Amino acid sequence: MTPRVGVDVAAIPRIAEAQKRFGDRFLHKFLSDREIAYCGNSPERWAGRWAAKEAIGKAMPSGVPRPRMRDVEILPSDDGRPHVRVAPATTLTGSTVDVSIAHDGHFAIAVAVIPDAVTILPRNGQAGGSSLPDGFQLPARPRDGHKGTFGTVVVLAGSQGFTGAAYLASMGAARSGSGIVRLLVAQSIYPILAQKCTEVIVGPVPEIAPGVMGHASLSGILRGFAGADAGVIGPGIGRDASTRRLIEDLIPRVAAPLVLDADALNLISEHPALLPRLPAQIVLTPHPAEFARLCGLETTAVQQDRRGMASRFAKAWNKVVVLKGAGTVIAAPDGRVTLNPIATPALASAGTGDVLAGMIAGLLGQKVPPFEAAVTGVHVHGLAGMDLEASVGRSGVLASDLLPQIPRVMERLR
After folding, report:
1. Residue 218 scores a pLDDT above 50
2. Residue 353 pairs with which residues in a beta bridge?
3. Which of 193, 237, 248, 358 is the most buried (most CB within 10 A)?
4. DSSP state, residue 67
5. Class of the 152-413 domain?
6. What is the DSSP letter of 53?
7. Distance between CA atoms of residues 162 and 156, nearest Å
8. What is the C-alpha to C-alpha distance for residues 317 and 295, in angstroms, rounded to an integer?
9. Nearest Cα to 134, choosing from 374, 306, 315?
């Protein structure tokens, strides 16, 4: 994994002048008490730590808030080299940070390297916030657990030309820790998914046209959802009128918590009055255009007030809403709202939303409540994207690249 590097230069006379003008009040803005004691009256040491902390901030990924300077302490180790200690519950908690400080004439120069920069945790963006967003909750993972311990997730997805959506959603559930994942697909695309999804139980469903599941498939699909702890409905299922009738009759009859994504949302938008009548334990995961169709507004209006819109319609629909995009908003019917600050173009590729839908369902199946499952899924998904930005780049990341990164991020957070 490519390390992140930051460099900064601080003018020693400028730091000395600021201390002369503002006294210890200035030093306490960026130095810990132990650093102040160590530096004594040395402007060179003050400037060296200023430069080093600026360099650390520059080494952090874009979109991740820097910790306060006082939360990063730099003191000499036994061999004299600078040792960085990070205070608990900051965006650098758990990260390894190496710095080198040098002086040349009137300047202090510092280089910072974060070899494991992908472990950085974004904060919730609020003053005094913790290193994890409000509502974040990883499921328990007892060592004596078995596949039944971690839930069964059923995924209804895919159609002709959209087999990838079914694969990504089901594997998103599997990679988030589900014990068993069952994927229900139309008969004609079953051979494709049965070969591709070797760790998922793939079941063929009667179809009304090649690759199309319709109302005639209802009884078979209900049997497939028997015993489910959670489910996903929608990725790539198409927008046939019979498919709409299928999901309208199916959703109220599934006892497990559900994630409705992609085409399920588009089909429901044709009958939006249905939404408030559906079970409350549903998580909706629209992107802005899908959200706009659901609430009968223009996409631009949604984007102008993302937080307000998500909160308003979560209450109106009595559902948890995940309004996706840069700065994803997660809103609950009871008024709780969490804004996830992670934004990376590495996630701007087809299929990443299908992975997220599967992840949230996987967490629901492990008994995480709907709002907490949505917050946690979004956060882990975003951190996995940041990992890939650091290791692959801002472009060219595929949705399937997220899959092996998900359990790594979850284990790191544990």
Report:
1. yes
2. none
3. 358
4. P
5. alpha beta
6. H
7. 12
8. 10
9. 374
Which tokens go with 145?
Answer: 């657990």
Alpha helices in 197-336 (DSSP H): 218-225, 241-250, 263-268, 288-295, 299-304, 306-317
Q: Tell me, what DSSP letter sits at residue 358? A: H
Domain residue ranges in the chain:
4-119, 152-413
What is the three-class DSSP state of 109? strand
The answer to whether the CB of 228 falls within 8 A of the CB of 154 is: yes
**Tens digit of each residue's pLDDT (9 = 90 or more) over 116-173:** 543 444 444 333 334 688 899 999 999 999 999 999 999 999 999 999 999 999 999 9
Q: Which residue shows structure tokens 């629909």?
A: 317
**Among 351, 354, 360, 403, which residue's Cα sits nearest to residue 379?**
360
Question: What is the Cα–Cα distance from 247 to 264, expressed in whole angstroms?
Answer: 7
What lies within 8 Å, CB to CB, of 37 at 6+ separation is: none
pLDDT tens digit string along 38-50? 999 999 999 999 9
pLDDT of residue 122: 44
Q: Is the pTM of this model over 0.85?
A: no
DSSP 372-408: HHHHHHHHHHHHHHHHHHHHT-SSS--HHHHHHHHHH
pLDDT for position 193: 97
**What pLDDT does residue 3 have?**
77
Instruction: Please determine, for residue 206, whether its predicted confidence score (pLDDT) is greater than 90.
Output: yes
State the DSSP code for 171: H
Q: How far apart are CA 287 and CA 310, in angstroms?
A: 11
CB-based contacts of 6, cutoff 8 Å, min separation 6: 54, 55, 56, 57, 58, 59, 60, 111, 112
CA-closest candidate to residue 319, choices 299, 295, 300: 295
What is the distance between the alpha carbons of residues 183 and 172, in angstroms, rounded to a whole number? 12
Q: How many CB atoms lie within 10 A of CB 25?
A: 10
Map tokens 């039944």 to a residue: 148
| CB-side neighbour CA atoms (13 Å) of 352 | 24
Domain 4-119 in CATH 3.40.50.11810: no
Q: Which range has highest mean pLDDT (71-75, 258-262, 340-344)?
A: 258-262
Q: Is 181 helix (H, G, I), strand (E, B) or coil?
A: strand
Cβ neighbours of 311 (radius 10 Å): 21
Predicted local distance difference test score (pLDDT) of residue 91? 65
Task: Give the residues across from 231 on adjacent strands.
Answer: 154, 258
- Gyration radius from the chain CA atoms: 25
- In the block, tokens 């959506």 appear at 165
- Record the tokens describing residue 104, joined without a space: 């040349």
